[in-house]
Amino acid sequence: MLKRLKWQPNQKGRSFRRLGSDGMDVVDDSWRVRLPSLLWIPVFIFGALLYFVDIFEIEFLSLQPTIESIKDFTYDSNKGFAINTPGCRIPEMDPFDPAVQPFILPPTRVKCNKGVPALFEANLTSIYILKSSLPAYNVSDFSDLHCCYSVIRRVEPKKKLPDNFFSNNEKCSYINGSTIIINDEFIKVQCFVDNTTIYTDTFSFVPIKNTTKSKVIYRKPLNVLVVGLDAVSRLNLHRQMPITVKYLQKLGAVEMLGYNKVGDNTFPNLIPVLTGLFEEELNKTCWPTQSSYFDNCTFIWHHFKSKGFMTVYGEDASWMGLFNYMRRGFKKQTTDYAYNYFNRYSENLIGNEHKMNVDQCEGARLVYKDLLEYIKKFVVRMNNSSLPFFGFFWGASLSHDYLNQPRLGDPDYQKFFQELEEGGHLNNTALVFMSDHGIRWGDIRQTYQGRMEERLPFVFVRLPKWYTNQFYKAYSNLKRNTRRLTTPFDLHETLYDLLDPYNLTGEYLKTTNKSRGISFFREITKYRTCEDAAIASHWCACQQSKELDTNSSEVFEVASFAVEFINMELQGYAQCANLTLMEILNARLMSHSGSDIEGVSNIKDYMITIKTVPGEAIFEVTVRYSEDERKYSVIGSISRLNLYGKQSACITDFHLKLYCYCKSLLS
Question: Which keywords belong to this entry (predicted)?
Fold first, then answer.
């Protein structure tokens, strides 16, 4: 029992006295010093300062831990797992596992323009002639060459026509000299000898536009640059682009190991990033039909624009771009700058080396490298002009169609990031390097690992060091969430948080565990399941499974329902043939972790791979059987594992193209 101490002077000095058990005073020399009341004042002040620093995340007197002291957060044993939480388990897989090794082959190098070099090149502000290329055009006397340039402009579509119209000013300005400064955005260059055209090329620039209407409210705005690479899984990025990965790691980029797609292809996986909505929700709010423009929709760049940022959206292979493939695009240009229009014009004019779905070259230049050069020009021009920016770029020409082709771009992407970093252009920029899904077709896709990779694209997030030092709670949450289940909805919330990066402190970072989208800067609960994150069972990489006998009556009944479902989807399209089951290639019974199907009991999820005729299409379908209701249903969308090519040319609905086999091909 504690006894009250009282202060009394002592002959030996000051000490505490207490009453002993015999009633005599006992000296307690262990309490030698007691601070005067006034000395408590600085203690309280220091405590208040600690509280102030903690709440407002102020870097003061080195009270926060440095980046180096923040470890990679893991709360569970992750041995053998990329994600190992109560809500989700995703196995860690070897990029060079023997099961996928047969599909990892050297890519074929591309020879643009049949080896004929470009006659002109461009830098940040000018075009200049490459005199070393003159012999390739049979020009021996420079004075025999006459060149001029004309301006390319986007033309606003009319009467609900597609957004793919351009004007090329008939006036061709004479190029007087070997170098000329360009003040326009997009130009076409032509060269003649004896009135015969011997050379045509296109070039893009980033002139400063006076389009910003709002003032930036931040004391130091944080730019946002998103660089996308289509159809590359996390494992395939490590497999094909190790130099780039190593450099990003050197920069301190954080890799999201549990980033799980939420839809089949690019559109349903990027729309959540850009709007925070599912495709179906977009249909209900701002894009009612496939023939509608997207002008009534609010994209993430609109929020940045309202804060005074310059905005840019750019794609290569833009004929099949996010807003243009089987869609109308925009009536009004949606961002201040838009590279995709230039790419569309350029590929139509001088595109070559067309393979599968893409032109790999524009004249003598690789398409993907031209996109990287434009991104660099944009970033440099904005930084040189002290203009804050939001940029979203998407590259498909390198990686859309081939598993191994990204290997060719590895040194170029590494160089691109290095030049931005060493030029100081990432000092005030949040960088996101990402994909939408893994490769969706081909032999690798029919392996277990290929199926998992297709659902797990890569995402890297890199923040400036000054920012991570100052806002260490947001950064530590980002690090912690590397081993949590995350989605495109979370990435949208992350980008939205960067609208006000100085707000990522204290109470603001707290979040509810059941939110569909949770910013990477807020702690994501380890109990999160696919259902919590709005990931349909068909796309969920957290599930465990066991293989079933494809010859069993149970599996045959599930497969038959899947084919019947596809045929029902095609009802009303008389030009499409009725499909029948040819073969069951694989069947697995899926198990769910945590409360993945909350509120539903006695259900079974079957993931089956089937082949149908005519056309020998290969489909992967998740079919759910409810024992209570005694009925089947298809969960999520259906994956097409092989290419349909021209089999579905008779139909325009981009969803049903996966299923349709045109009757006209039967004759």
Answer: Membrane, Transmembrane, Transmembrane helix
pLDDT in tens, 493-540: 999 999 999 999 988 887 665 679 999 999 999 999 999 999 999 999
Cβ-based burial of 252 (10 A; exposed 0-12, middle 13-18, buried ≥19): middle
Residue 598's domain comprises 544-665
Distances (CA, A) of 126 to 35, 44, 185, 548, 658: 74, 63, 11, 63, 45
| Per-residue CA distances from 606 to 61, 586, 610, 620, 631 (Å) | 58, 10, 12, 10, 13
Question: In this structure, what CATH number is given to the domain that contains residue 505?
Answer: 3.40.720.10
CA–chain centroid gap for 362, Å, is: 25
What is the distance between the terminal CA atoms of the chain, rounded to a whole angstrom? 99
189 and 230, same domain (yes or no): no
Residue-averaged pLDDT of the chain:
87
Residue 271 domain-assigned (yes or no): yes
The C-alpha atoms of residue 263 and residue 488 are separated, in whole angstroms, by 10
Taking residue 250's Cβ as centre, other Cβ atoms within 10 Å add up to 11
301 and 387: one domain? yes
pLDDT higher for 42 or 165?
A: 165
Do 134 and 253 share a domain, yes or no?
A: no
Q: CB atoms < 10 A from the CB of 114, how many?
A: 9
Of 140, 170, 204, which closes a domain?
A: 204
Q: Say yes or no to pLDDT of 361 above 70.
A: yes
Cβ(636)–Cβ(622) under 8 Å? yes
Closest CA to 120 of 288, 298, 365, 347: 365
Residue 209 lies in a domain: no
176 and 126 in a single domain? The answer is: yes
User: What per-residue confidence (pLDDT) applies to 8?
Assistant: 39
State the pLDDT at residue 456: 98
Has residue 177 been placed in a domain?
yes
Examine the pLDDT at 631 and tell me if it is beyond 70. yes
SS3 298: coil
- Whole-number Å distance between alpha carbons of 257 and 149: 48
Per the domain annotation, does 100 fall within a domain? no
From CA 522, how far away is CA 599, in angstroms rounded? 27
Q: Is 601 exposed, middle or buried (0-12, 13-18, 19+ CB in 10 A)?
A: exposed
Q: Is the pLDDT of residue 453 over 90?
A: yes
Q: What is the number of structural domains in the chain? A: 4
Q: CB neighbours of 289 closer than 8 A, spacing ≥ 6?
A: 283
Q: Are residues 198 and 163 in the same domain?
A: yes
| Same domain membership, residue 479 and residue 406 | yes
pLDDT in tens, 269-280: 999 999 999 999
* Distance in angstroms (rounded) separating the CA atoms of residues 157 and 649: 25
What's the rounded Cα separation, in Å, for the pair 297 and 317? 23
- Give the angle subtended at the CA of 202 by the CAs of 147 and 193, to the nearest 5°: 25
CA 513 to CA 520: how far, in whole Å? 13
Domain with residue 566: its CATH number is: 3.10.450.10
Q: Give the angle subtended at the CA of 299 by the CAs of 439 and 152, to the nearest 5°.
A: 85
Q: Per residue in 126-151, is it b (16+ CB within 10 Å) or e — as a string?
A: ebebeeebbebeebeeeeebebbbbb
Same domain for 160 and 124, yes or no, is: yes
Q: Cα separation of 184 and 460, whole Å?
A: 34
Q: Are residues 37 and 135 in the same domain?
A: no
